[in-house]
Specification:
The protein is mainly α and about 140 residues long. Helices cover about 55% and strands about 0% of the residues.
Length: about 140
């Protein structure tokens, strides 16, 4: 057929922009000292340690610990109930399971409950440092 010419497809597409070459990427020479996570953990422990002397609160400890019927028996059936029911409109099976162990080991002495919460806060503080290291690709 006359007038049928093949078009150059590459010529009709827009040219791709080349990334700007700003030279080599410089890494920061700043590094957090090895002792820094320890200092942050110690400060966290100091801040939260004031709660160790407290009794149970009326805010939610009555619902989850002091008046919780799910903590009465330490049997396989009670563990099943914890994982298949709600506690005051919330599904908290791991929290209530930990309270079950604490209740049967320590009764209603608030110190072990507070010590465990302090330990969880300290572990989370360390985990935030580790996560920041992983996300940044640098040792903090």
């Amino acid at each position: 057929m006359p007038g049928n010419k093949k078009k150059n497809i590459a010529a009709t597409q827009p040219a791709k922009a080349k990334p700007a070459d700003n030279g080599p990427v410089k890494e920061s020479s700043f590094q957090i000292p090895l002792w820094a996570p320890l200092v942050v953990i110690l400060i966290t422990a100091l801040i939260y340690s004031h709660g160790l002397q407290n009794e149970f609160t009326l805010y939610d400890d009555t619902y989850y610990v002091t008046e919780n019927p799910q903590l009465a028996d330490f049997t396989l059936n009670s563990i099943k109930v914890i994982f298949t029911s709600f506690c005051y409109f919330l599904y908290l099976p791991l929290t209530i399971l930990v309270y079950l162990f604490e209740y049967h080991l320590f009764g209603l002495d608030p110190l072990p409950y507070h010590l465990l919460q302090l330990a969880i806060h300290l572990i989370n503080t360390w985990l935030v440092f580790r996560l920041t290291e992983k996300l940044s690709g640098h040792r903090l």
